[in-house]
Amino acid sequence: MACVYIPVQNSEEEVMVVLDQLPKEATDIIDILKAEQASLDLWLIIAREYFKQGKLDQFRQILEEGSGAEIDEYYSDVRYERIAILNALGAYYTYLGKIETKQREKEEHFILATQFYNKASRIDIHEASTWVGKGQLLLAKGEVDQAFSAFKIVLDGDRDNVPALLGQACVEFNRGHYSDSLELYKRALQIHPDCPAAVGLGIGLCCYKMGQFDKARQVFERVLQANYPYCAMASNYLENHFFYTGQHFLVEQLTETALAVTNHGPTKSHSYYNLARSYHSKGDYDKAGVYYMASVKEISKPHEFVSPYYGLGQVQLKMGYLRSSLSNFEKVLEVYPDNSDTLKVLGHIYVQLGQTEKALEFMRKATKVDPNDSQAFLDLGELLISSDAGAALDCLKTAHNLLKKEGQEVPIEVLNNLGVLHFERGEFELAQQTFRDALGDGIWLAFIDGKENPPSIDANATISQYKDMGIFHHLEKEGHLVELPWDKVTALFNLARLLEQLHITETASILYRLILFKYPDYVDAYLRLAALAKARNNFQLSIELVNDALKVNNKCPNALLMLGDLELKNDDWVKAKETLRAASEATEGKDSYATLSLGNWNYFAAIRNEKRNPKLEATHLEKSKELYTKVLSQHSANLYAANGAGVVFAEKGHFDVSKDIFTQVQEAASGNIFVQMPDVWINLAHVYFAQGNFALAVKMYQNCLRKFFNNTDSQILLYLARTHYEAEQWQDCKKSLLRAIHLAPSNYTLRFDAGVVMQKFSASTLQKPKKSVDEVRSTVSELENAVRLFRQLSAASSLHIHGFDEKKIDTHVEYCSHLLDAARVHFKAAEHEEQKIKHKQEVARQLALAEEARRKAEEQRKFQLERRMQEDELKRVRQQEEQFERIKEQWKSSTPGSKRRERSEMDDEEGGHGEKRRRKGGKRRKKDKHSRSRYETEGAEAEMMDDQEEPEYEDANMNYREPMGQMNEQDEEENVQDPLAAAGLEDSDAEEEAALSTARRRRAFSESDDDEQPEHQPESSPVRENSAELQSDGEGREGGGDKLDGDAALDDED
Amino acid sequence: MKLAGLKSIEDAHDESVWAVTWVPATESRPSLLLTGSLDETVRLWQPDELVNRGKMTGHCLGVASVAAHPSGRIAASASLDSFVRVFDVDTNNTVASLEAPPSEVWQLRFNPQGTMLAVAGGGSASVKVWDTATWDIVATLSIPRPEGTKPTDKSSSKKFVLSVAWSPDGRRIACGSMDGTVSVFDADRAKFLHHLEGHFMPVRSLVFSPVEPRLLFTGSDDTHVHMYDAEGKTLVGAMSGHAGWVLSVDVSSDGAAVATGSSDRTVRLWDISMRGAVQTMSNHTDQVWGVAFRPGGMPGRLASVSDDKSISLYDYS
């Protein structure tokens, strides 16, 4: 049993330390060593023993203690041992640095190693072993030339220093100078024929490398034979040497040897471990796994030697055995609960197992254990992207800053993800800057900064606008390099998406084209260009671009869906259905958008035909409901499907249900900048309208117009006009229609409607029992305008500009002219009446004046009379006074003040009254104010209701997909918006279909009376149900007929 | 180049303001701003304080466009009732009342020489040209149906003419349509020359550069401003940046800048050499239907009018 003896100070006794039974805590032994001031070589021996037992912490502790300032002072004259300790530490850290895979930590280890060697050099600059150590360190760092110099220093002093010769041999080997290397190994062997087998191995290896295979084999065989007597442990350490110098082959050989000679468990475990590691690093995971397993079997407790568990976990992870891997890493974690690598690995495994919560827990812990671990923050951030964008952003920012602080390049993917997160939060400036950082320098800058513009193109060939690559050919011709590294494509694509969002679409289109110029198979770029062309109504170009995408992949669901949408816009119903079906099949029915589109198709089909076939309509509606429901069952929070379902409910008259749905969808939709759902606002307004809540409907339409359409949508203005019409707000109705005409000048239906509303306004004014001349006058001018509008429409109808029935217009012209005649009569009558009234008033006024004059005269007379009487009285009084004076003079006394006092009392009373009155008035005003303020709050409430933007239904954002750096998916999301729109059914075929729907609307409008529903385009009018009823109501009647009846009544009235 | 706000008048009209133009100065008064509105009036304003110099009635159903004769004495307005009213700027006396049924009237422009008035004729798919001496129609410039029209193209309503512009030498007339096509005519011979494609949505405003007679700027609902070489039939460039329809375009008298008004409520100033927006004015709260640079002379002035009933005046330098 190996043991050492530590002499007890000031006595003859010694403490025996059994090397096999070293205390678990290194501090115990350090205390003894210090207390007994043991010689430093004892420190070394014990440390080495710990090392052999794999107790690296204890090994390090002892050596670090043994190289501390205290020891330096106490053992200042013991030079060699101090150097030996420092060199051991240097070698240890060199080894740590060598096996570390992470750059930052690797460097830290090397820095420590360097420090120890430098310290050793300060004790004795000439110590050869220090130089050899330094050489090894430099070799480990890959600084071969400097390593060469270090070994050379030693060899210059002692050309027979074997370790230096071996080092130098290694240098030459690394440089590929195998014959030089061979010479050096040979020399080492000559000098020291007993030197370790490693030398033989080196020789063998050189031969092997030089292609002298036979010779190499002979050498190896000899080595193994010679090696045999050596102890397994020595061979294990040799392996380390070779493992770290990358000579795996030797490691395997040596380990086999070691295993053959030992039965000692821990040693075997180490041997298996070494072997496993060798296979592991070569990528032979099967073999590595077997040997790790063997190594683990020799260990009774993970605490004894945990490394193989780690390795085994890694291999199992690599091979996809997640559960087993998990349990091995958990064992490692038991031993090192704060090991951040283990924590991170566990996090990754849980991600792969789909246990996000658990994964987050470990990742969070990893970031807490080491707040400087950029990788941990990156992992956590990426994991959070799908669940908590805000937190993800914070993590990635931290990682970004850490990487920068370390002076490391921030990976493009990280910058890209950061950019996407900023983008999604609407922080466009930051997003743009981040994408630019990700992209760095390149040809794209010239386009982004507007320095390069596309050349002129034929204005009759603009069909190829977004396909033109002329700009790039031009640049290449001018000698510029048009390059785009593949790893930057995603960031460039995302930047282009951002530019689109900022409406800088021309630049975006150039960037997409740049991507296609270099990577013509990048389908998403075609689709974005197609979307740009579509947004500009250039359908032909858009279809071409989609077809380009389909050439790359004819089953690409996104391209098929877009094509279907375009075909719908082109009114190609049958084709569209086929395309949408193909898309649905391409995704095996799992893609919500495809299902939604088919649902919308059925909805369109149900309401499209003017001559409705109730059976067909019901079938289509049922089908669309089924499809919406299918999407909802897969994705319960799909806003678009919910909207569609709401529409179907509304169609069936379940307004309360649909209102609830729309309200929820609206709230959920307002949380995401990528979700624009005007349809749901319109649908909600339709429901309000159908329920007779006109004020709210108006508000909802107006808000929708302002929020989504820059107030430019003439269709919604038409809805608005219809609502005003129902609410009998004729002037508002007319103004809305005039605005609509101004926005959509070629929509003659609007002119017709404007005519109708003016007609209606006039008729209703004329029906009023009492009307002022002004009212009648404006009636006349409105009628004149109406007649003019109708006449123009009538004239235009011969040009086939619009699809109106000429006869119908003529009926209106007739009716309005008739009304106009009546109005003129009314006007005359009213004028006459007014004259009469004026006359009467004049007479009355005259009478009043006369009366006034008479009254005044009377008053005057009275006044005169009174005055005369007063004067008489005065005279009398004066006379009496005089008489009285006389008497007074006789009595010598008088009391004149009392009367005045009485008077002032009266004044006071009057003043009091006045004040009271004023106070009363004040009170009233206050009341007014109160009622007004109440009104305002009501208004505010109403507004709040309309403007709610809080995304309360977060879970409803299920459409939201994980960006994971690729915003391409957003395409799809955007596409999804369209269907949504489609569910609301807005869009161009609206225009095209105007002719169809106009008739319906026209009828509605002209039937006027109470239950008409002017408009029911497929677009966004889910509440058509209501109108259908109404229409059947009116079906028997001839348009305008009942109007004429009303007119007859009017005549009677006349 | 830069815009600086000088003055804004809120509630300049009782309703949306849809049209604006500058009336050149006469011996007796400086140049004035003329605006037209949905409130059925046309109003005159004197810069820089935008003092109201008169309100003129006599229009029905909203004024969609206004134009001033180069002499500054007469002006014309087009309203939704399809009448063009020509009136004396200083007295508001009606000079002529023009109609050409069933054609409606949209944008109108006098030629630089003042001898003709061109009116965009809406659904008639033509531009009507009136003689300003006799007030007779002297030409109807009809847009031919494009070759290879698809049978699915339903009607001529697609060539609904919205906007019109004269080249600075008065030899060319360009007009913009609902379907985005721009058509170029030889004004002297009243002959159609060619189409300029590129827009596929309504072109509500277009204007020739006063400096380069071939250079034509168009604004469209597709949110873009295009630069065409109207003679060479090429699309020289496209400028994007507006978030809504481009409703109005005008070029500065030095030909270096373009101003646009948009439904996105902003006025933008574009540097032609950079082909990009250099400034965005966000003072309006609703669609900006009209922008107009004061022709000639310093200091430069730009006016804008909006659906928010206000008019604004800027210094351009």
From TrEMBL, chain A:
TPR repeats lie at residues 128-161, 162-195, 306-339, 340-373, 678-711. SUPFAM superfamilies: HCP-like, TPR-like. Residues 884-1054 are annotated as: Disordered. One of its GO terms (biological process) is transcription elongation by RNA polymerase II. GO terms for cellular component: Cdc73/Paf1 complex. Residues 938-955 have a biased composition (Acidic residues). It holds the Pfam family TPR_8. The keyword NADP does not apply. Residues 1019-1030 have a biased composition (Polar residues). Residues 1034-1046 have a biased composition (Basic and acidic residues). Residues 915-932 have a biased composition (Basic residues). This is RNA polymerase-associated protein CTR9-like protein. It comes from Pyrus ussuriensis x Pyrus communis.
TrEMBL record, chain B:
It comes from the Eukaryota. SUPFAM superfamilies: WD40 repeat-like (SSF50978). InterPro entries: SKI8, WD40/YVTN_repeat-like_dom_sf, WD40_PAC1, WD40_repeat_CS, WD40_repeat_dom_sf, WD40_rpt. WD repeats lie at residues 10-46, 56-97, 154-195, 196-238, 239-280, 281-317. GO terms for cellular component: Cdc73/Paf1 complex. It holds the Pfam family WD40. Keywords: Repeat, WD repeat. This is Uncharacterized protein. The lineage of its organism: Eukaryota, Viridiplantae, Streptophyta, Embryophyta, Tracheophyta.
